[in-house]
Amino acid sequence: MTVDTPLAPGAARKRRARSTTSLTRSSGLGLGIALTWFSLLVLIPLSLVVIQSIDGGWQTFRETLTNPQTAAALRLTVTQALIVTAINVVMGTVIAWVLVRDSFPGKRLLEVVIDIPFALPTIVAGLVLLSLYGPDSPLGVNVANTERSVFLALLFVTLPFVVRTVQPVLMELDRDVEEAAASLGASRFTTLRRIILPSLAPAITAGAALSFARGISEYGSLVLLSGNLPLKTEVASVRILTYIENGNEAAAASVATILLLVALAAIVLLQILSKWVARRG
Amino acid sequence: MASRLAQPRTTGTYVRRLLVVGYLFLLVIWPVALVVQKTFEGGLDNLQTALSDAVVTDALQLTVVVALWAVAINTVFGVGISLLLVRYEFPGRGVLSALIDLPLSVSPVVVGLALLLAYGGTNGTFGPALEDAGLQIAFATPGIIMATAFVSLPLVIREIVPVLHEIGTEQEQAAKSLGAGAWPTFWRITLPSIKWALVYGVVLSLARALGEFGAVKIVSGNVAQQTQTATLVVEQKYQDFEQGSAYATSFLLALIAVAALVVVTILRPKDDTDGD
After folding, report:
1. Chain B neighbors of A34, CB-CB under 8 A
2. Residue A225 sits in which domain range?
3. pTM of the full predicted structure?
4. Which of A188, A204, A226, A239 could connect to A73 by a Cys-Cys bridge, CB 3.0–4.6 Å?
5. Residue A87 contacts by C-beta under 8 Å, 6 or more apart in sequence?
6. What are the residue ranges in chain A where pLDDT is below 50?
7. Would you call A220 and B110 a contact, using CB atoms and an 8 Å cutoff?
8. How do the domains of chain B map onto residue ranges?
């Protein structure tokens, strides 16, 4: 479920990072306290979710998954998250490119705009999108309570991920190599494909993984926007919530475990893809 | 930075610029502007109505208290664990470093479920024992703080760790060889170099903490004037057709988050990512 932070390539950094020491008594104590807190807050509760879903046995698992409403919710969630991630890979990279390589008045404003979806409370994000794409839309585009509302909400909340992972790597990228390639007669497209994309691939992948994981787990921004219509606009998180509210924790845990597994699979797949792109460069 | 990297401008430059600005305008700028506009449609009426409503003010107060606690916990924990991860060698370091990001990929609803399974009062694993000891976590403030701390946990760490890698240990070792203890070294050498990354991480955590919705909705029980946070009020007011109050509360929440971000973006030295 994790993504390596794409530390920008740089030999100096690797060399300097070596200087670690083994634990002293006080740092050992600190590690103990930190690990206890981390276990109590994150590891134990999350393990209980997985245990709960296994406890119910295959029976509960199968019944939950074959429930048409839950199956539809999972399908919708994964499909929309995939589409949104694909768009983010392209748009996020282009945005990062413009922020790093271009300069124009108001560029710093855009820097803040990129962070807004992250900073804005998700429920407010829903309200914000509703104002332009809801029933009173000044554009005349009303996506509320349709599948498109899920797409739009996910696109909004996942905006920063690819941009913010690609940006630092692009900043460190050596321009000399690009110029050398160009002077040797490589077209701009070849330079992009053979030089730039391979170096950016790990960062793009990391951003895509974060964006997909966020996409399949989104809840807050959809509450007001999608209407949570069963079989139509209901996403997996809402199914989990309904199960919890009905006191069916085993079913809730099953759906939650599926979500965790899907995110894990996506991250592994993207890592493989990233290696493949980097090797072809 | 910009001047060194600026490229010869071609048609492509302008096409990309237009594409990016248009995309961000339609997705973020215009919708956000509309919410601000709707908040102030009747002058300050909406804000006044919201702020004279005890349900809203109690919720805002709870949100601020919870956010401050969660951010304080995450800051101390985050700085500590980042130093341990970067500067020390211990078994399981790689695994821990991978697990730290876990909260970012978990649905807020799953976070709520997980905390309920562990600390729920009736059938949680530790809940009943803790309640017998007089500590109620689920459906009370401690549970809301835990949910909030959970979702914003990696943010400080993700900002500090790359900077700690970047600055290396030369200065710290110099201080030590001159006889400085661990604590003075941290205060006078390490902290000043990670200052901006830390501030940025804290601001991101604060924004996330103020805005947490899903996890808090499950863990808090959502009781007005007791365990209802500001984001839960926004949902309730909107669904009760008190749109004005919903917009006003949203505006206040967004204002704190965005204002903090803007201030940091302006204050933060531009080439700070290049190291010292």
Report:
1. 77, 80-81, 84
2. 30-280
3. 0.85
4. A239
5. A155
6. 1-18
7. no
8. 45-270
